[in-house]
Amino acid sequence: MDAISLVNAFNRMLVSNVLIVRKHHRLNAISSGMVRNAVILTGVAIVTLFITGQQMGTIQFRSHLGDVSSISITLMYTVIMIVQFPTLAVAISKRTKLHELCKRIIRMDEEFQKHFFRPIPPNSIWWIKLQLVIASLITLYLLCRCILLNHMYPGKTALTVAARILLQFNMAMRLIFGQLFGEILLSRFQHFQRVVTLRNLGFFVQCLDEIDELKTLLTSIFGFQILINVFSSTPYQPDDLMDAISLVNAFNRMLVSNVLIVRKHHRLNAISSGMVRNAVILTGVAIVTLFITGQQMGTIQFRSHLGDVSSISITLMYTVIMIVQFPTLAVAISKRNKLHELCKRIIRMDEEFQKHFFRPIPPNSFWWIKLQLVIASLITLYLLCHCILLSHMYPGKTALTVAGRILLQFNMAMRLIFGQLFGEILLSRFQHFQRVVTLRNLGFFVQCLDEIDELKTLLTSIFGFQILINGANMFMTCSVVSYNVLITVQIKENLLQVLWEKLDVLADLFGNMVIFFLFGYRCGLIEVKEQEFKNAVKSLQYTATEEHSEDYLNFLDLINLKLMAESPKITACGLFTVNLQVFYNVFAAIVTYIMILFQFRDFEKA
After folding, report:
1. Could you list the residue ranges that cross the membrane (predicted)?
2. Residues facing residue 268 across a β-bridge
3. Least trusted range by pLDDT, from 33-47, 159-173, 478-492
4. Which residue of 37, 344, 348, 418 has the fewest CB atoms within a 10 Å radius of its CB?
């Protein structure tokens, strides 16, 4: 009953669309409040965003943006309001899955009661209650503070502050609501552990299959909310590979990958999913955006803006970003079977390790990948917010092309990070193999090394073109944006004002450079860890004593010769090896290109 009252409480707090009711002495989950939640929360977010947009256009508001602190706080609050729209859209799309999740948990508990003639003992779920109390007290304090200090704000400003506090509270409640189901599954595991015996083993194996499906359903429903709240740890996922699996599946939902990792009969399996969806949506966005841009290029008003090198270079940069989507998608379609094979072979290698050592490979948090995802997502959200807030300055079609270009560029960054994810998986394998390799299992690890070499070749074949395109995109974007900012600094003396006006392009510049830098750094680290693993294997020959046979010593010599051979590298279509040196070379090329653009500007002045 405690869990039921909490689920119903979340429904009344505009978080859930499910109510648990008792009918004919049986619990039942019914849909309730979806329209109410969507209308109220969307209305609050739209009104708040509209008032904020009006205030941003006033001279009084701009006078407060005199330092980095004020600017960052304004951006933070704007993002909080903007993310309500995708969050609500995902909640609406997942409403039937949430209903199914509740019904299946109720059904599992009923089956337990039929089998053991007693219900599952109640759980106080006090962790959830503690979080609810903390969030409620903080929200009440912030609202009281807003009311007490309302004489310091105009009426509209106080309204936006109060609405922002309530929207932020709703976001926290959605996260806690997802955790509630995790706590329910956790309590089931704890109780099953106490009562499992050989006589009822078959029943609990069925329960384990059901809980695995419930966890997959839980990830599908609340995965986006977890990403929005920048919450990286998932305590209700006990699988060592689950973190990598959730990331691969998240990239599939972000229109990047055509592979889903699913669990069937207690085994992981890679299946093809979403190739047609990805191709149709991304091609459609690119074609529409490019078509509208082409129409605008033919207008006299557009040509009047192309009076200097800065405007021409920015126009060419955005056009190229849209055009390269077509070859990128074509390569992704042609490599779809190889990506599927890559996932299956990594799963198979991990299964072989578990069979050999009777334990799985330890989990990896992949926090480098999550850091890049957070950076790219926040910058994209900011750019979209900036586009919406300044939509009154552009015609409708222009704002549409800007938004389309931002989303396409985000998709390009996601493809690069997706390739890096597989590099991180191989890197974690090298690190673990180095810790456990011994003379007794040397043959197994040499086989693993051969397999990883083939996986690296496969990885280069799949993502080589994407690496090349992203390297060229970073070079072009950073060159043009840096040149544009430097020209503006020359014209205006107030550096802080220039930084505020060019914050959108600077965010774009920062995101491109950080993502490509981390990509090069982590790929270069794979070579370092591989060499360390090889050195660890080579050092084992010195532990061989006279007790070993001559044949065994010859075997060690053959392994040593094999390790001395050069391994395949992760390259961009074979043109260059991906490591940190690539970033430095591209950075040097950016400086050179900026100097060339300045020479064109001198020629333009003359």
Report:
1. 33-51, 71-93, 132-153, 165-186, 274-292, 312-334, 373-394, 406-427, 462-485, 505-524, 582-600
2. 263
3. 478-492
4. 348
Q: How many residues does the chain have?
A: 606
Q: How far apart are CA 448 and CA 453, in angstroms?
A: 9
Examine the domain organization and report whether 233 and 321 are in the same domain. Answer: no
> Distance between CA 48 and CA 463 in Å, rounded?
42
Q: What is the mean pLDDT of residues 516-523?
A: 86
pTM of the predicted structure, to 2 decimals:
0.61
Taking residue 69's Cβ as centre, other Cβ atoms within 10 Å add up to 9
Answer yes or no: do 281 and 157 share one domain: no
Task: Using the predicted structure, report yes or no on whether residue 233 has a pLDDT greater than 50.
Answer: no
**Residue 23, helix vs strand vs coil:** strand
Quickly state the pLDDT bin for 231 (edges 50, 70, 90). Answer: very low
Q: Which tokens is 224 given?
A: 């986006």
**pLDDT at residue number 321:** 78
Per-residue model confidence (pLDDT) at position 135 = 87
The three-state secondary structure class of 403 is: helix
CA nearest neighbour of 594 among 489, 501, 477: 477
Rounded to 10 degrees, what is the CA torsion of 535, 538, 544, 546? Answer: -140
Predicted confidence (pLDDT) at residue 99 exceeds the cutoff of 80 = yes
The span from the CA of 53 to the CA of 384, in Å, is 13
Q: What are the beta bridge partners of residue 20?
A: 29
Q: Are residues 228 and 293 in the same domain?
A: no
Q: In DSSP terms, which residues pair with 26 in a beta bridge?
A: 23
Q: How far apart are CA 175 and CA 507, in angstroms?
A: 28
The per-residue pLDDT of the chain, averaged, comes to 78
Spatial separation of the C-alpha atoms in residues 131 and 134, rounded to whole Å:
5
3-state class of 561 per DSSP?
helix
User: Which range of residues forms the domain containing residue 194?
Assistant: 2-238
In a domain, 262, yes or no: no
- Look up tokens 């044949």; give the residue: 551
Structural domain total, the chain: 2
Q: What share of the chain is helix, strand, coil (3-state, %, to 5)?
A: 80, 5, 15
Amino acid at 519: F
Query: What is the distance between the alpha carbons of residues 380 and 403, in angstroms, rounded to a whole number?
Result: 10
Q: Is the pLDDT of residue 597 over 60?
A: yes
Residue 205 domain-assigned (yes or no): yes
Q: Nearest 5 degrees, angle CA 64-CA 69-CA 71?
A: 60
Residue 376 lies in a domain: yes
